[in-house]
Write a structure and sequence with these properties.
The chain contains ten helices and no strands. The chain has helices at 10-17, 28-49, 53-57, 69-72, 80-99, 103-129, 146-159, 161-169, 174-191, 199-215. The chain starts with 9 loop residues before the first helix and ends in a 16-residue tail after the last helix.
Length: 231
């Protein structure tokens, strides 16, 4: 005798998992990144005891010397204050972005933009240091999620409903849009300037995030073009 089914359909169960659909459940990716921050911070402390923390978590020139640090450095932090500040910024800027995309895309965005920003800090400071009279010294090393956080901020500003609405009302030439994006990146970078801060990583992260926001690279299905990543 057949037993009556008490479970929902497979389609319903897949929707409830939240792993492949944007929405409230996909925002758990932010908490997952925070957990990774904390776990890496603990591992940093343990590896520091034997003097190998930099080998695993600090991105240094040349990039080919320890290529794994291009990614691991994104989740590492130089002290508890650094961890807390980046964690709070991730919550503020990452939460609305995560709700408009999938968990997998959010995690990929954080890793890729953070790695790109860190690599840019190393490469660009080295190039600028070779320019006569340039007040730039080669970066000895970089770690932290600031580049990814600035990318989330750039994405949020470029993909929200307000910017989309203005773009549809005013015919802005591409060169002017590019100039505005670069100007915003410079302004945000200067506003966060302080000793020991990887400014070029901040600039690169914001710029990459803003370009990605205009292209809606994280939009999924009905979210694409709706500007739902914005507040």
């Amino acid at each position: 005798m057949a037993r009556p089914s008490t479970s929902r359909s497979a389609t319903d169960l897949r929707s409830d998992s939240g792993s492949d659909e944007p929405g409230p459940r996909s925002s758990s990716a932010v908490l997952e990144v925070l957990v990774v921050f904390v776990l890496v911070f603990v591992v940093q402390a343990l590896t520091a005891l034997v003097g190998v923390m930099g080998t695993f978590f600090v991105l240094r020139p040349p990039l080919t010397a320890a290529p794994w640090t291009i990614v691991t450095s994104v989740y590492a932090h130089d002290g508890l204050g650094h961890l807390v500040s980046n964690g709070l910024a991730l919550l503020v800027f990452g939460w609305p972005v995560a709700r408009a995309t999938t968990r997998a895309r959010f995690h990929a965005f954080v890793a890729v933009t953070g790695a790109t920003a860190g690599a840019a800090q190393i490469v660009l400071t080295r190039l600028l240091a070779a320019v006569p009279l340039a007040p730039v010294a080669p970066s000895p090393g970089v770690l932290g999620a600031s580049g990814a956080v600035f990318a989330l901020l750039g994405y949020l500003l470029a993909s929200n409903r307000l910017s989309s609405g203005l773009g549809s009302l005013v015919d802005v030439p591409p060169w002017l849009s590019a100039l505005v994006v670069v100007g915003l990146a410079v302004a945000v970078t200067v506003a966060t300037a302080s000793p020991g801060v990887a400014l070029l990583a901040h600039f690169t992260g914001f710029l990459v995030g803003a370009v990605a926001g205009r292209a809606r690279v994280l939009a999924v299905g009905s979210s694409r073009g709706s500007g739902s990543a914005g507040a």
